[in-house]
Automatic annotation (TrEMBL):
SUPFAM superfamilies membership: Anti-sigma factor FlgM
InterPro entries membership: Anti-sigma-28_factor_FlgM_sf, FlgM, FlgM_C
GO biological process: bacterial-type flagellum organization; negative regulation of DNA-templated transcription
Annotated protein name in UniProt: Negative regulator of flagellin synthesis
Domain Anti-sigma-28 factor FlgM C-terminal intervals: 38-92
Protein family according to the UniProt entry: Belongs to the FlgM family.
Species for this entry: Neomoorella glycerini
Keyword annotations: Bacterial flagellum biogenesis, Repressor, Transcription, Transcription regulation
Amino acid sequence: MKITGQGPVSWNRVRAAYQQPADVKGQGGVDKAFAGADTVQLSAGSKLIRELKARLEEVNDTRAGRVEAIRAALAAGTYKISLEEVAAAILKEMGR
């Protein structure tokens, strides 16, 4: 992210702007010296991240068929868990 402009707010400048006579100020009572002084530019990387995030939100990573099969097996009382397979999966996840 790149921010350009006048830098940190100088409260003395702000106070001076509001103490000026009305005819010196621009439309709406805003000092002309402050109008358009700061800009924000987002990098190409931030745009890419935003696009990738939007794409990921569209992806459904739930395997509906597998979930329904497990629900049915649980409801029927036929879902069996292999302790060896669970332990192997845990160790695999830990990188062992």
